[in-house]
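Long-time lurker. I teach an intro course on protein structure, and each term I like to show students one example going from raw sequence to a predicted 3D structure in token notation. This year I'd like something fresh instead of my usual example. Would anyone be willing to generate the tokens for the chain below so I can use it in lecture? Attribution to the forum is fine with me.
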Amino acid sequence: MRQRIRNRSIATGSVTRVERDALEKLASKWRANALSTVSVDASGAITLVKARYRVSGLGEPSVVVVSSPFVMAIVAGAITGILYAECTGVRSMHDARRFGIEPGSRVLARSQRQVMTVPPVEAKTEQSSPEGASPLGYDVAAAINMARRSIPRFGNESWLPPGATRMNSFWSEGWQPAQAMVKDMRLAEISALNDPSVLKALHDEAADAISMLAENMQLYHANRQVNLQIESHNLAFSQPVEMLKTLFQNLGEVFDISPQLLRAYWMRIPYQVNFGNFVSDEAFFSEAMHEVFGIADSKTEEQKAWEAYCLGAGICLPFEQFCVVSDRPARISIDESGRLHDDGDAAIQWRDGLRMHYWHGTFVPGRVEHFVSDPKSLTTRDIEAEQNAEMRRLMLEIYGLKRYVLDTGAHVIDVIPEDHCIVGLRTACLLKKSMGRGDSPLYFVNLLNSTPEPDGTRRRYLLRVDPDAYDGEAARNVHAAAASTWRNADGSLVFDNWLDYMPTIES
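-- Reply from a regular --
Happy to contribute to a lecture. Here you go:
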């Protein structure tokens, strides 16, 4: 039995029942916070944001609280674009080309530097760090992490701002151009953004927030005050792209900036999001170390300010001169594994009408939403006509694999056993479905994803197979069939020999 040690710098040895109960009580607190649907108190959130800036040694920012992350992205992108024009004098695409400036390529420290990162928390264990360097023993770290897993964690979802990435090691993609959500297809996939009343509400909310921030920051062209009120009572939108185009046109007129330049700059700005209550598990870990196991007598002022913000506000986009805070959702629904999910209604909804459907953590685009709420309307023809593999997998989950195989008359050609040495191919099966009417049969390979989900589960994928690949071997051998699904950009096979495809070998 490991020696139990508890002091200001180290916690090792077995975990007591009292400590486990304290961890569970603490996890319940942060679990409720992660799923909170209480509307953010604007004045309280602004105070918390300013406190975080203050302890970080930064000047007081201009802060605005908006209705949803989508509005948050629009406002932050527009303000940084306006700042860019004010600081450089570049106000049109023509000027940008003449001066050789690519919008967004030259990051202005005072307009785009982002702040308020998550304070680092040491989480090493005895087994992963040199002797004497770890504050937590193996048993203590395991107990904290076990309780931590019960706290839902959201991030990198479709409702996040374009280009948003998590500011911690769980997602380490780094900064990337902000283009994902502003593409017409992505916007069109969110059914709520095709509702004229929702688009109108989002437009008005964004326009008001931009006006408020611009006025507070005195962003007036040539230092002269302009009319910041954007008249919108007669506006009507049928598509999100139309709404954004109108907003940028109005902003362009108010601030004497080319709408094309403003939109181009906004699309290229990198975002990093401070997730507020959506990273409650991080706050739990920090508090568990300090409050349950007594690591250090007191927290740093930065950690205290960060935890207070997690409890009192939602996600935000913090910049050096300003910060845009989003309200919490009005509704969140999750499955037993803590993933966004709802069998009928939108899994996450905001008070401005923005809502998103999810199926066990997978975003459901508008074109297939009705299958989630009415599974009986889903047919095998719908599944086979879907071009997107992820959506096909989702539709197959809703329909049921066994039911699909039975209903389609597909029969199994080849199966790989569960104990096969190639881990990535275990339980894979090759299916053939006869079409009739003289049509060629369809071939599918059903694969188990070798990469587990955050909760440890693994998803199955149904991929269409070209039966002629590898001289017809893909129609006979499940290994060859799986290899044939890997293609280069020009459509050619990635593997010249299907035997070269060996996803994760276990000796």
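Some talking points for your students: DSSP finds 17 helices and 13 strands in the chain. Residues 104-114, 120-132, 161-185, 222-226 have pLDDT under 50 and may be disordered.
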